[in-house]
Sequence to fold (184 residues):
Amino acid sequence: MSILKKQDGFGLVLTMMFALIALALTGALMFVVMQESKMSGSVKRYASTMEAARGAVAIAKDYIVTGKTTPAFGNVQYATCTNDRVSRSTYDPDNTYQWTVCDGYTDYNSNTCTVANATSANPKICPDFISTLGDYTVYTKFADNKQVITGSTYNLITISIYAENPALLRESVSMIFLYLLKID
Fold:
């Protein structure tokens, strides 16, 4: 067995190994930073979309409480139907459908509104109003209205909201909430 007596080039090999390790660590660090940046942007987009949806909640609440004929922001699609949805129960105590004025009109997207469409929870089909809030289009729909009598009379209104950024459809939020309105 012969022992190498010359160690020329060992420093170069060692330096290249350290450079390779440093390059791998730098690449890993850049990957982590880029992933964090993507995550941060995603969270920001979600928060912005959620704020647009919350704005639509405030608009719907204002519309119900004040009894306005048009919402503060947005266009009413079919005012007679919207007023019916807010002021009358969907079904009477005998289970007879009461929103008959909501049948047969055509919405913004050429959907014919029927009993099934009028009471579906999808706010993009036969919405009550469409609002533009910043970069976001928000669809609001009063999907159901039940009358509850417990000493006082209340309307329990189901409101569906869908907010989206038309330029980036992955920026969207859908929410459904209940609003209790005291009648007397």
The helical segments are 10-66, 79-87, 115-119. The chain is about 40% helix and 30% strand. The beta strands are 75-76, 129-133, 136-150, 152-165, 168-182.
